[in-house]
């Protein structure tokens, strides 16, 4: 017992001696000039410590620091790069003898950081690291790597009221980031500790507020960091934000292999507006270009709800007549990515166009985006696409291969373009390539070839048999014919091929078949002006009885010219009645010649 008492007395005496020494013979304020001079030599900046430094003692030893500021380079505004109102660091004394660190408290309050970028490109970071810092870092790094700690315990970390001002003088913009609070609860190696934060940002075109909480654990060998049950809620507001406000929420868990520089994230739930998703992300940041692998499953996406039609229409009406020239999108960031993404989406609705069951494989590497596979259900049919975008040049180039099978074309056209032109089951394939991603240039530069066939359908807006019957009646002098039938022409098949160049689709072999008539010809469709220009020939293969005609039609077998003009939205159909009359007269003349020939043969007794 005496030995224990003597031991305790010795420990207390040592602590008292350390306390007396630190308070009487070791004043931390004596080192302030040396610290200021060292910072001046190292960075050329002015370090100011206005408040006195003070010690704290048993059961913890620590130092209180306040009124600290570090200047920006000379000539910068604001003058201060860093200002700290109060900082406290306290370490438990006794565990230090056992090579254990127990931090009772780390706190920082009222810090302001001003990061300025000037018009000439210089910034607040210039000069912070120099040759001296590099030389000094080597022994320090060696010392820290050789040091061994048995344990670390932290009573808590608190950071409050920290503000970062990012000032861009060239753009005349200031972005303000505020960390209202960050707290780490009681922390020890191999044990989960609670974390929480509250953050906000003010930018020229939007504001962001975010808060989150979770728990983290660090392995004893400092090689594994695990974050569990992290939930972050964010609100973004601004004129450029869909509906001026977007709320997001994410729940995730992550593991970081600090020694291998690898990160994996398991996203249990992600929601933004009405969109929900889940997935996994893996990152290997040990390479020069971080490698990212992602696999996401997304629910229903209705982009139309994010862009209200009323606001879109109003914006269109208020848009000025003169607009600034379009510029190529900057895709240079693709050169810094090495990404593989697998994505499934339950449904996507955009511009009133509905699709389901998306399956997508995308890769990005060395400035090239490869869409190796995109499959989707499209109006009772299938969509299959592969494509590539090469962003290694300032003007991006692209190529694609697209197939559509078994699609109901009428609802697709009505939803996509508000065009009621065709009905039927459509199959469509097209291969193309081009340069430039500016919408107008994209249409002009696109080179493509394709083929289509539509079965068991109808051409809306025109009743060709009725037009023929009406023209036939007018040729006979009957101008009282009334049109009561539906403006629709049924067909069993509509086929053709096309090529696209300079914004104009050329279709040289349009062919339509139905039980009543045949139609063939060629024409063009201008994607820039939406103008149609088709010259077709139609001929009856039987009577028009099914369309209101007689059992035997006088025009059966006669070629009847048909022109289609107008636009995609309002196509116009017209029969060439002059050519129709000439063809009919020729037919009648040929018949008369045959009758005369037969009559002469009979009179001559035949040959």
| Overall number of strands | 30
Strand content is: over 45%
Overall mean pLDDT score?
79
The largest pleated sheet is described as: 30 strands, mixed
The shape is elongated
Rg: 39 Å
Question: How would you describe what is shown here?
Answer:
This protein is of the alpha+beta class and 607 residues long. Helices cover 19% and strands 50% of the residues. The chain has a 30-stranded mixed β-sheet that branches. It is elongated and about 120 Å long. The termini are far apart.
Please render the helix and strand layout as text:
Layout: H1 2-25, H2 32-43, E1 47-49, E2 54-56, E3 60-71, E4 80-92, E5 100-109, E6 112-117, H3 131-146, E7 151-154, E8 157-168, E9 173-184, E10 187-188, E11 193-203, E12 206-218, E13 224-237, E14 245-257, E15 262-272, E16 275-284, E17 291-302, H4 309-318, E18 338-350, E19 353-365, E20 368-378, E21 381-390, E22 397-408, H5 409-417, E23 422-435, H6 439-445, E24 447-460, H7 464-475, E25 488-501, E26 504-513, E27 517-526, E28 532-540, E29 559-566, E30 571-575, H8 577-603
List keywords for this structure.
disordered N terminus, 30 strands, 607 residues
Quick recap:
The chain has 607 residues and is of the alpha+beta class. The protein has 8 helices and 30 strands. It has a 30-stranded mixed β-sheet that branches.
